[in-house]
Amino acid sequence: MRIEDPKIVAALPELGVELRPGTSLADLTSLGIGGNTDLLRIKKHEVIPDLLSLLDTNHIPHRFLGGGSNLLVIDGDLPWVVLQLVASDPDIVLEGNFALVDAAADLGRTVTYCAKNDLGGMEGLIGVPGTVGGALRMNAGAYGMQIGSYVREVKLYRAAQRRIELLRGHQISFEYRHTSFAPDDMMLSVKLELPSKSFKEILQGIRICNEKRRASQPLGQKSAGCIFKNPPGASAGRMIDELGLKGLSVGDARVSDRHANFFVNAGKASAIDMHALIADVRERVQKNFGMELENEVVFWNA
Ligand code: EPU
């Protein structure tokens, strides 16, 4: 989608919003898949209500993008513009055991920055790509921990109320890869409370998680992490592996040889290829194990 109305194009810089016309979502997602649209980069949280009312009154649909690491976007000319926050500087401020973190901050950098300041707890998240906002929305977790456990406050734009609000931790529910945020809520910043630990001890935890991840996940390849959630009491990766589906391909979309719940873009996979592969694997698991796998990756379809 293109913003062509000169009045809107002129209004954007006044809001401190940078317009990047015709941006490829393949370049902004870890899967390297997705069509083209106008990207709007937001530098100040306060302008979001005005920006969204400008888009709404002009009937311009939009989607919010975090780090693009858990996302499968359709191909072609996308029917919405994409909004993305630019991280503030500094994007992490520490106050005792609290870390005030911008939603646009890189998750890995946040974990290491806190570690260097003797704040731990998030060691398991070290290899998870993406932004803190994306991790919050999905309640990202690994190796027995999840980010939601440390959340004390979240500042967010609530699309339904059309305003910026502050939620306390107890007002949000964090479950396995699921939160009570509405799909159109936009994470802006978070206050985390982290346990004090020595850098040395945190580093040891980080090393162990890194080793486990390197041994079991296809880290150098284009993927969106695990495609399916684990059903209660079962492992999606193990079931797909037991069916002998590692290496199964549709075009360049391929079930990883290393971890069967990672589907990789081995070249120039299209969204259609990836969706066909996902549907095929889902059907086979349903047929053989009687389990309906739920997506872990977010789909941006028309
Ligand atoms: N397994 C296989 N074959 C495979 C993959 C896994 O037999 O191809 C077996 C493993 O041997 C193990 C079990 O399945 O016994 C579970 O595998 P693993 O330890 O790799 O964990 P997972 O349940 O597949 C989850 C998260 C990951 C997270 C890891 C580590 C989900 C959907 N996935 O994977 O998160 O990194 O645990 O904590 O919850 C993600 O969310 O994108 C993601 C990668």
Helix content: 25-40%
Low-confidence stretches: none
H and E order:
HEEHEEEEEHHEEEEEEEHEHEEEHE
DSSP strand tally: 19
Strands across the major sheet, in which order?
6-7-14-10-11
Q: How far apart, in Å, are the first and last alpha carbons?
A: 12 Å
Count the helices. How many?
7
Largest sheet: 5 strands, antiparallel
Tell me what portion of residues adopts beta-strand conformation: 25-35%
Q: What's the mean pLDDT score?
A: 97
Q: Give the class from helix and strand content and strand pairing.
A: alpha+beta
Shape: globular
Radius of gyration: 20 Å
Molecules bound to protein: uridine-diphosphate-2(N-acetylglucosaminyl) butyric acid
Layout: helices, strands, pairs:
Blueprint: H1 6-14, E1 17-24, E2 36-42, H2 48-57, E3 62-65, E4 71-73, E5 81-85, E6 92-95, E7 98-102, H3 107-116, H4 132-138, E8 141-142, E9 145-146, E10 151-158, E11 163-168, E12 174-175, E13 178-179, E14 186-193, H5 199-216, E15 222-226, H6 236-242, E16 249-250, E17 253-255, E18 262-265, H7 271-289, E19 298-300
Parallel strand pairs: 2-5, 3-5, 4-19
Antiparallel strand pairs: 1-2, 6-7, 7-14, 8-9, 10-11, 10-14, 12-13, 15-18, 16-17, 17-18
The chain binds uridine-diphosphate-2(N-acetylglucosaminyl) butyric acid (EPU).
